[in-house]
Specification:
By secondary structure, the protein is mainly alpha-helical. It has one domain: Orthogonal Bundle (434 Repressor (Amino-terminal Domain)). Helices cover 68% and strands 0% of the residues. It has seven helices and no strands.
């Protein structure tokens, strides 16, 4: 998946579990709703300063937004993301394979036990 598409998808997924609407998210982030919509659709690249604020406000990392890497994401957010989007556990390529899936599954089990 292209980086721009991954970013747009991940922005939408995180926004859906942390904010009630695009309007609320845009207001909290200090941007116009239309701009936020363009970012979620992958039409435009987001401002790096806004992405840093978004990460602080939502508990995700830039690595998650740009590469779908769940390491460092707040446990409750990661749990919700994995519950809604189990495809995050799928390997990005055949070579990434079993190790990534096994590690993510172990993290998910640890979060559920907490």
């Amino acid at each position: 998946m292209a980086a721009k598409t991954t970013l747009a998808r991940n922005l939408r997924w995180v926004r859906e579990i942390t904010f009630n609407s695009q309007t609320e998210c845009a207001r909290v982030m200090g941007v116009q709703v239309g701009r936020w919509c363009h970012w979620e659709k992958g039409i435009r690249r987001p401002d790096p300063d806004v992405m840093a604020r978004f990460c602080v406000a939502t508990g995700v990392t830039l690595d998650f937004l740009y590469r779908s890497d769940l390491r460092g994401v707040a446990e409750d957010v990661a749990f919700h993301l994995l519950g809604s989007h189990p495809e995050l556990l799928l390997p990005r390529s055949a070579s990434a394979g079993r190790a990534r899936v096994r590690k993510a599954a172990q993290s998910t089990c640890q979060m559920a036990d907490a």
